[in-house]
Structures are given as structure tokens and as C-alpha cells.
Amino acid sequence: MTNKTYGPQTLAWSELKEKAVSLSTTSIASMFSDDPARGEKFSRESAGIFFDFSRQHLDSEALESLVTLADQTNVKEGVERMFSGQNINKTEDRPAMHIALRRPVDYSTYVGKKNVMPLVAEEQKKMYLLVDQLRSGALKGFSGNPITDVVNIGIGGSHIGPLMATDALKEYRTSDLKVHFISGVGGLELFDVLNQVQVDTTLFIVCSKSFVTSETLMNAQVVKDLLYSAGGTYAVENQIIGVSSNHKAMDKFGIAPNKQFVLWSWVGGRYSIWSGVGLALALIIGWEHFESFLAGAHEMDEHFFEAPIDENLPILLALIGIWNRNFQEISNHAILPYYHRLRFLPTYLQQLEMESNGKSVRRNGEPVQCETCPIIWGELGSNAQHSFYQLLHQGTEKVSIDFFLPVLSGMRNQESHDVLVANCLAQSWALAEGDPEGKGGSPHQHYSGDRPSSLILFQRLDPAMLGRLLALYEHKVYVQGLIWDINSFDQWGVQLGKRLTTGMEKNISDKKTVAPQPLKSALMQFHKWRI
Ligand code: F6P
């Protein structure tokens, strides 16, 4: 990337800076009253998603300049680089080819010189067979009883995706299997799950791209010991599945070769739900539904690749994010789903966005010249209205928002769901328009408005729609990375903490070890209380 194509150095960036200043005295409410067609002008529909960004604080000129920004930063070329399997993850010297995992298998896809689709097809077949074996009862626990429970052991991208998606697609279950998750250490989570399952009828999936993550290995070891003491080597080999790119480590751990699933180096952990990491999901919703989850994501990939910038949902979503972060100086972005089944979506997007774009050096190692990823957080909208919406409406900090809303509830409770819809729409209206007069002139009941939000509206949350939504955000993140010129696919920021933890274990187990200066008093107190 030359400086001319670096976001903050482009002409469009300077135009946007000026535009933000000139728009600062125009309210969103007045933009609506001045233009009755604003709703249509500032919304797009594609792949079953209606993206309404009319309640963002921008006008047609600002939108045009944002589109120009994507053009001047060569976003489309960046998309081509990703889709053609180039090594876009330079610091780890690898491509980011999660899109291959959701392509039809006859769609040749090259990573370097190799068409990876036969490998993808082979892994999918193994997944399908496992789903089938469990469904038909062919795979039994070591005592001969049918498997009743599945426990996913993994953390970060090896945990949040399957957790979020199995919960989101509860209505699409095709099996009575119960699914559980163990991620962190500390023992309580493990204890709670092991209390709910019978070890002889439980299948454990150890998901870890690296297979060196200490939390995952610690939890997996406990499970392995339990299985071994209950049913010997046969139980371990029969009931532990491994998903990783590190076969050596899986062998060493004792995972049977026919129970190992591949996660390729060119798939990042937070982009891996489409691979064997999605096994828990496939087991719960069945293979057909899992395939439509993949097909939905592929549909979004095709849209992302083909649609012009002004109609391209991931690019527009990214541009609106950049408008808020870099030109409206909003540092917080909230994910607010109005649908109980999307309760883990904020957590999922938190990792996807902040681990990908929470960076301050450019791809060439120089410091960035603009703000990058905002702080992402969120909660179910309905609950959040009764906790932190106070700040959203009247706080000193502006927060940009993505509301998620299915039209249909998916259950026989549409009337109740309609109330949820009313709440979501009313909130986004109130945030945009405010009530500048304030009820009875009281300053305490004054709402400034101009608090920007977008609405992601879709008909129903089915497997294909979940696939589309996740792919939409994956690509949004990549586009922002292109404009900010950061590598969205590495995560070096997590390493220092891991390194220091290893050393810290000695301080915890041995009081006499010399504590690092900044932790002296905390460790002294710790040892005093550790009876
Ligand atoms: O520490 C961060 C991280 O590396 C994430 O990027 C990843 O999703 C998670 O840990 C788990 O890693 P693994 O799948 O290798 O166990």
C-alpha cells in the first residue's frame, strides 16, 4: 500500500473531515424532515438482509465520500487478494481463506498452488459421518450405551462460535443430544458441566487450532483422566475428538487418528466456525442444516465479491463504522440484538472485531495515523433497555449501535415478538430524534438525539441467515482493516499476557519467589489469604 492509498492520507479522508464539521450543526431529525425519501436512500437490501442506516448522522455527500474512500483505498483489490488465496496475513505468512470452507466443493479454490477444496470436502465428509454415526446410534459410549451429551472444550474462537451458534439455532435441532461448553480454567465451569453428564455417554470435542492453549489442555486432561479411569484407553480413544491444525500434539495427547479433524493454518481461530470447530453445531442441528449455514455464508461471500461498493453490505457496514469511529469520534460500538437466540452474538462479534482490528501498527510496522477498532460490547436489547440505555440516551459519551431484528419469532409467539419489534424500532427512533424540548422543560427529561444506529432486519433467523450475518461481519472487519491498513488476521497482542502468566505460576506456587515490583503487594496479600 502506498501512502496515497492509505485511508487517512486519501483525498476522501480530508473531504470526510470537512463534511463531519459541516454536518455537526444538522440534526438527524432535520435530515428526515428535509428529505422524505431518506429512508429509501439510506438503506439497502441484499441476501435477505435489510440494512437501514438512515438513522446515522450522515447525508448523501458524506455517503458518496465514504464510497470514494473505499475506492481510493483499493478495497475491491483487497477483496480480490483475499479471494485469490494470497498471503494477506503477512505477519504469520499465510492467507485467510475461511471463505473456502463454505464454498461448494466443486468450486476450485487455490491456496498457493494447491486447490484446497478436495481437502475441505474430505473433512466435511468426516464431519457428516460423525453426525450420522451419532444420529443412528452407531457410535456408542465405552459402556455400550448411546451417547447423550456432547461437551466442547475450547476457548476464544474454539468456543464462542459453537456456543453462540448452537444457542442461536435451537429451533433447528434435529437431535436430542445435549450440548455443553467448557472454556476457561478455575475449575468451576468444568465441575458444573461434569456434574450434568455421565462420562460413559458423553462425547468430548477438544477444539484448539494450536493445541497448545493451556486452558484447553488443562480441561482436556481432566476429562481424559476421567475417561481413562472409567473405561481405559478404549474410552479415551472412543470419546475424545480433536479439532486442530497440530496433529502431532493431538497424537501426543492420545486422540485416535480417526477422531482427528483438521483445522488448516489458513483459517484463523475466530473465523473457524465453518470448519471442524463447528462440529458441536453440526451434531445438534444435523448435517443438512449445517450445510445451509455454510451456504448462507457463501451467499454473502458472493455478494461481497460482486456487488458494487454502494450496494455492498459488508463494505457499507464497514464504511458506516469508519464514519462513526474516525469522523464522529465515537469510541464505543454496541451490538444490541432484539432476539433471545442472539444473546451470545455480542460476545462473538467482540472477539471477531476487537481481536482482528484492535491494533495500532500498520501492515508495514509503522504506527497508524488514525483511530482503529472501537470498543465493542452489547447485550440483548430488551434487557439492556432496563440497565444501560440510560447512558445511550443521555450520557456524555456517544455510542454507535447495530440493532439486530428478525421479523418473525420462529415460534408460536409472534404477538409477543411484535412487542419486541416495537421496542427495538422505538429505541432507534428515540436515539436518533431525541426530545430536545424535554418534557415540561425539565433538563432531566431532555434527550439530545443524534445518537446514531443502524438496523439489521431480516425475516427469520434460520441456519442460512446466521451464516449470512456472520460472514457479513467477517467481511466488514476485513474492509475496515484494509482502510486502516492493519492486518486483521493476526493477534500478537495476546502473547505478552500468556508469556507473563507462565512465569507468574511460580510466584503463585512458591511464596519465596521474588515478585515483580508492580505486583509485590498484591502477591503478598494473596499469600496471606491463601490458606
Ligand atoms: O489467545 C487468543 C487465541 O489465540 C485466539 O485467537 C484463539 O481463538 C484462542 O486463543 C484459542 O486458540 P486455540 O484454538 O489455538 O486453542
| Count of strand segments | 13
CATH homologous superfamily placement of the largest domain: Glucose-6-phosphate isomerase like protein, domain 1
What number of structural domains do the residues give?
3
Low-confidence stretches: none
State the helix count. Answer: 20
Strand content range: 5-15%
Helix/strand-derived category reads alpha/beta
Q: Sheet bearing the most strands, described?
A: 6 strands, mixed
Question: What distance lies between the first and last C-alpha atoms, to the nearest angstrom?
Answer: 58 Å
- Based on Cα principal axes, name the global outline: globular
| CATH class placement of the largest domain | Alpha Beta
| Hetero groups | 6-O-phosphono-beta-D-fructofuranose
Q: State the helicity in percent bands.
A: 40-55%
CATH topology (fold) name of the largest domain: Rossmann fold
Layout of strands and helices, then pairs:
Elements: H1 11-23, H2 28-34, H3 38-41, E1 43-46, E2 49-52, H4 60-72, H5 75-83, E3 110-111, E4 114-115, H6 117-136, E5 149-153, H7 160-168, E6 178-182, H8 188-196, E7 202-207, H9 214-239, E8 240-244, H10 247-253, E9 260-262, H11 279-285, H12 287-306, H13 313-327, E10 332-337, H14 345-357, E11 375-378, H15 381-384, H16 389-394, E12 399-406, H17 414-433, E13 453-458, H18 463-484, H19 495-509, H20 520-529
Parallel strand pairs: 5-6, 5-7, 7-8, 8-9, 10-11, 10-12, 12-13
Antiparallel strand pairs: 1-2, 2-13, 3-4
Helix pairs in contact: 1-4, 4-13, 7-11, 11-12, 12-18, 13-18, 14-18
The chain binds 6-O-phosphono-beta-D-fructofuranose.
Write up what this structure looks like:
By secondary structure, the chain is α/β, with parallel strands linked by helices. The chain folds into 3 domains: 3-23 and 46-73 and 307-433 and 458-490, Glucose-6-phosphate isomerase like protein, domain 1 (Rossmann fold, 3-Layer(aba) Sandwich); 98-290, Glucose-6-phosphate isomerase like protein, domain 1 (Rossmann fold, 3-Layer(aba) Sandwich), CATH 3.40.50.10490; 495-530. Helix content is 47%, strand content 11%. It has 20 helices and 13 strands. The protein has helices at residues 11-23, 28-34, 38-41, 60-72, 75-83, 117-136, 160-168, 188-196, 214-239, 247-253, 279-285, 287-306, 313-327, 345-357, 381-384, 389-394, 414-433, 463-484, 495-509, 520-529, and strands at 43-46, 49-52, 110-111, 114-115, 149-153, 178-182, 202-207, 240-244, 260-262, 332-337, 375-378, 399-406, 453-458. The strands form 3 sheets. The protein has a 6-stranded mixed beta sheet, sandwiched between helices. Helix 1 packs antiparallel against helix 4 (60-72), helix 7 packs parallel to helix 11 and helix 13 crosses helix 18 (463-484). The model has no long low-confidence stretch (mean pLDDT 96). The structure holds 6-O-phosphono-beta-D-fructofuranose.
